[in-house]
Amino acid sequence: MYLTRLFRRNSTLSVLVFSSLVSLAIFLVHAVATHSMLYWYLDWNLLLAWLPLLFVVFLRKSLRHYPWLSWRPMLWTVLWLAFLPNSFYIVSDLLHLQNDTSANILYDTVMMVSFMLNGLFLGYISLYQVHVELRKRLSVAWVNGLVSLSLLVCSFAIYLGRDLRWSSWDLIVNPEGILFDISNQFIDPRNHLQAFTTTLMFFVLLGTFYILIWHLVSSLRSNKQMSDN
């Protein structure tokens, strides 16, 4: 009931739903035309990309009644951070285009980009909401550090997912395996340069565009306040 009321009141969430449905429609047209479910994983990855935003909705609701370090907000925060990389992970799905043998690779590219943009928007919007909540409670330096750390975690998680094939669910079902693989990267960094280059590449990419989004939104809000006055 709470989510239903929220979607009715929040036009941004409604537009995000519409945009995601457009991506699903593009996929369905492709599946029917090619008689193939080859790209079914795009639908699954898009569903996972929605989870961080939903966790943030409940996080913000709990923050109205409880301090952030109490167990309810912390639970939603941990879930948000654990699943946030899924929103950005869709970018790496573009890799599959190099093996595309379709007669219409342009259509497949448009489909991939559609899912990728939806994933990025969902991830950035959820990160922005957490950023705003942090700004109410901490200094700018601390907030910038925590946001940067979140993006760094996401960038490393993309490497874990794409190269080592771990997922967010493995944090629950196989945490020992993840910890073992992560420790290997740091114990023997010379033989795992790919981990650091991939992490750095995605950190620069995600961080640059988030800075752009933050300043664009801040600028638009400032202009609106000036016009209202």
Please tell me about this protein's structure.
- The protein is mainly alpha-helical and 229 residues long.
- The chain has one domain (2-228).
- It contains nine helices and no strands.
- Helix 3 runs antiparallel to helix 4 (71-89) and helix 4 crosses helix 6.
- It is globular.
Q: Average pLDDT, to the nearest integer? A: 87
- Shape estimate: globular
* Fraction of residues in helix: over 70%
The largest pleated sheet is described as: none
From the alpha-carbon coordinates, what is the Rg to the nearest angstrom? 19 Å
Distance between the termini: 37 Å
Report the strand count: 0
SS element count, helices = 9
Which stretches are poorly predicted, pLDDT < 50 over at least 5 residues? none
Q: What structural category arises from helix and sheet content?
A: mainly alpha
| Number of domain units | 1
> Strand percentage, roughly?
under 5%
Order of helices and strands: HHHHHHHHH
Question: Brief description of this entry?
Answer:
By secondary structure, the protein is mostly helical.
List the helices and strands and how they pair.
Blueprint: H1 2-9, H2 11-34, H3 40-63, H4 71-89, H5 105-135, H6 140-162, H7 170-173, H8 175-187, H9 193-228
